[in-house]
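During the second year of the project, the team shifted from modelling isolated chains to modelling whole assemblies. The rationale, set out in the original proposal, was that interfaces cannot be judged from single-chain predictions alone. As a representative example for this report, we include one of the complexes processed in the last quarter. Its constituent sequences, exactly as entered into the pipeline, are reproduced here:
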Amino acid sequence: MNAEIRTWTPVGTIDDIPRRGARCVKNGDMTIAVFRTVDDQVFALEDKCPHQNGPLSQGIVHDNCVTCPLHNWVISLETGCAQGADEGQTNNFPVRVQDGQVYLDLTFNKSTS
Amino acid sequence: MVNNCDKKRLVVVGNGMAPGRALERLIERAPDSYDITIFNAEPRVNYDRIMLSPVLSGEKSFEEIVIHGDGWYVQNGITLYKGAKVTGIDRIAKTVTAEFVASGSGQAPLQPPISVEYDKLIVATGSSPIIIPVPGHDLPGVLAYRDLDDVNAMLLAAKSKGNAVVIGGGLLGLEAAAGLMEQGMSVTVLHLMPTLMERQLDPAAGHLLQRSLEARGIDVITRANTKAIVGDNKVEAVELDSGQVLPADLVVMAVGIRPNSGLAEAAGLAVNRGIVVDNSMRTDDPEIFALGECAEADGEVFGLVAPLYEMANVVAAQLTGEESKSFKSSATATKLKVTGINLYSAGDFAEGEGREEIVLRDGARGNYRRLVLKDNKIIGIVMYGDTADGAWFFDLLKRDVDVSDMRETLIFGQNYAGGIPLDPGAAVAALPDEAEVCGCNGVCKGDITGAIAGLGLKSLDDVRAHTKASASCGTCTGLVEQILKAQLGDAYNPAVVTPMCGCTDLGHDEVRRLIVAKEIKSLPDVMQQLEWKTSCGCAKCRPALNYYLLATWPGEYEDDNQSRFINERVHANIQKDGTYSVVPRMWGGVTSASELRAIADVVEKFDIPTVKCTGGQRIDMLGVKKEDLLAVWADLNAAGMVSGAAYAKGLRTVKTCVGKDWCRFGTQDSTGLGIKLEKFLWGSWTPAKLKLAVSGCPRNCAEATCKDIGVICVDSGYEIHFGGAAGLDIKGTEVLGNVASEEEAIEVIGALTQLYREQGRYLERIYKWAKRVGTEKIREQILDDRERRVELYERFVYSQKFAQIDPWAERVAGKDAHEFQPMSVATMEAAE
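Output from the structure prediction step:
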């Protein structure tokens, strides 16, 4: 896949997402969790913990990580990778924020390409 | 998902430490290779049997010695049958059959027997304590020392503070004796041989050990042959061959173990002392492995953890096709886990032809060490007192090092080995990489230093997580810390206080104290003023800080939703599939036709799959989709119901019995008091969940004596209890005291709750808080000091003004709407 060509889909505004929180975007069968950090960075991961598919969107967001609500795995928002001694990776999606509008590239998935 | 039909079925009989380790290793090597089923005759998960002695002495709780909690089995897709005793193996049909153990005597088992098919079978039935068949050995009050049930029975017996006699002066017997003494009993140890622990210690060290036990108040009688255990309906005394009679309220037999090989024998497997296995750990049926204390390899059976874990490694390797891995027994070192007594022994220390010995004694300090040499190599080690050099000597022994060159100073230990005295840290630094540090888990120094360097580990917990060194019995913790120190230098800073989390060096109590002292009233301010190391905390500290601020500054601090766990954020309990469960409040457990009708309507309208009664007398609706939560609540609100807070670190339920309105034994209106208490306490946040019960008479049908706070009604008034537990730990409540009126009961309970709110550490249940600060201290403040009680009560009443708002109604009215709806539904066509 060519990483230079991006297909941006608008999914809402940054103010729709609470700081240190997340909202969900439904994309067919898949749910994508869109996170906003304390310093207004926005990240998008598939809403599935690599451990047991826990909904990451429901976790506590701290620094650039989220802690899964089911078994407390800590997942990096930037890479989707499990932190600490755990191993696993969740699909992540490129995000663009322009004039408060949040866009995701839903065709692209950094982890598998 | 992996298709289960393709997987081979592995069945494990027994859930002790050895099979637990084997499965851990198996899952590491090949996570999805087997469909695993475990049968455990004990009604619990896998725990660290080596650590039963600290549980007995009160230094650790059962929770702290659990190796695999329920979650581990779930995470790894393992089916665990607890309380299921395997009764037969059919090797032709390749099935095992198990019966469920009844939960109480005279009761029928909860489930009928089941049969499970296997492709591979592991028999790990462990061993049984040997009971000497003297007259009276079957009297109540005669116990073995083997599992948690034995420990619980001993703890119960120890409450009488009477006399205990321990038969057997080996490792287990002495640990039991020390533990019972810690529990306040007068203890006598009977030992058949002339000196204690004669299998691990030479006579000199045995005497030193006896002396220090006696100095602690434990009587030791050696050459003691038990003739009979005397008593009518229970144990009363132990009679010796010498004619001596020792009064006893409790007798513990710790004279040895015998492998449990009956099941294997009945299945026609070769059995000698234990189940005979080859060096691949297979029995004479190649599909069946035996492992642990029930297995006999090379004509030997094993009881110490290190060789058992080595067996586990071999089984895991064999199951994943690494057939070259084989078991061979090697020397093991022994330590006694009695606080304040250090001894260490390894190898063969009997005198004999061609053997020499080097002995060092320091009588004043009670130090003794003896090395046995043959052909200039160490073959045996006995140390008593200062045992710091044990690991070094043991390493020389295992590696067959010729010690001729350092013989002059060898006995003084590693510090003098090179002729130059070094500091203790340097001694550790000088250990070779192959030196074994953790005997339980077979971890060498090189594994630890490699993990510290390679993974950037900084703390003892890190090292435990990644290497398992010092994660079992913990006696090598000091060594591991010295390795950390040697490698990291000043960067290693073992905190005296356990920090709240990785974001700070401060402990919970210090943080609370500073929040009050510096009048800190917001989360960012806590992190700034107390110099948090992360930008916005973590999932451990944020919920704790949010609670501390909320409890300290009621009405001023604004709750930070993003620092709450999901259940408290959306006021429902998340389930494993991401749906939620909903529990409406039923004051005191009382409901009505209209409430039940409304619940039934909601269940049908929203197609809720499961409806179930909870342990706290509530109705739980499980499997509600998140998008439906608001509508479900709106309907329940309309019928007059509010959130039952079944998700809260706060007041959960007040359970009641029917009391004197209906019951012929009832002494007071327990239902009415329960409802009053629930209406008074609801909405309050506490360090951990808070569950109450009120029973109308001492028959205690509401089970108030295992609750966080309980009330037992009596003719003269109300007996207030607190600090019970009936989860991972089982603990009866302490009696706080008696009061005469309902009003006084409510005041006392309000004050108690407030004291707990102000002192409890986040997630610390009330019984743990009480244990930490002392029941007496709490009673002084709540019962004896009326002024203090009223102060606390008034603070609680004030904070309730801001807490008693139904969170469901708030959200139905529009609060936090973003929590309940997706931000958007993406349509790919919209992309440019």
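Chain A is about 0% helix and 40% strand. Chain A has a mean pLDDT of 88.
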